[in-house]
Amino acid sequence: MRRFGQALGIRTECIDVYRQHHAKIWPEIERAIRDSGIRNYSIFLRGDQLFGYYEYHGPDDEFDTRMDTLANAPRMREWWDVMEAMQIPDPARTPGSWWSDMEEVFHQD
Amino acid sequence: MRRFGQALGIRTECIDVYRQHHAKIWPEIERAIRDSGIRNYSIFLRGDQLFGYYEYHGPDDEFDTRMDTLANAPRMREWWDVMEAMQIPDPARTPGSWWSDMEEVFHQD
Q1: Mean pLDDT computed over every residue of chain A
Q2: Is the minimum CB–CB distance between A97 and chain B shorter than 8 Å?
Q3: Residue A35 sits in which domain range?
Q4: Does A34 sit within 8 Å of B106, measured CB to CB?
Q5: N or C: which end of chain A has fewer CB atoms below 10 A?
Q6: Do the domain assignments include residue A89?
Q7: Residue closest to A8 by CA, chosen among A97, A89, A83, A82
């Protein structure tokens, strides 16, 4: 299992709409996330900061392929367009990414 | 089960020492966390920001008591003194807390 922690900014004027979208995400997106092997996915908010936590429970050697399939799932680009208009990515993020991966400095099962 | 997402600042000059402490936390602290019912506890770092994620798997009506026991566990105050000297709490946090609770805006099992 691989754990991920990711950070992203949000436009404070968009928070209500962002909350509403995430209270009931589109069924296509929910299914695509599930099919990818991602589990226990939470997004937390404080001020203008989002934090995402999720776990990848699929086979290790399928990770890249599954993330590719997820990115190309039905309506995913449309979902991201709606989300990205509300978010403020870190200019120093990894090229090609949107959320910024954080470093895991501690873990206890 | 209750999930928690928490934010806290860190003094960038202390990051190496913070990492070292968390690569192998004191056995008393590890045990106290386990005894409290906290599971799947991760701390992530990016820049001067820490994000903590953990789950409380104990009985709901024992939560307050167990968190109290955790706070008073052997060497906990000593551990916190070492940690807090490296951290920068949000001035707008809840009185009596150190980490700032974030709002869960999304979850998918």
Answers
A1: 97
A2: no
A3: 2-102
A4: no
A5: C
A6: yes
A7: A89
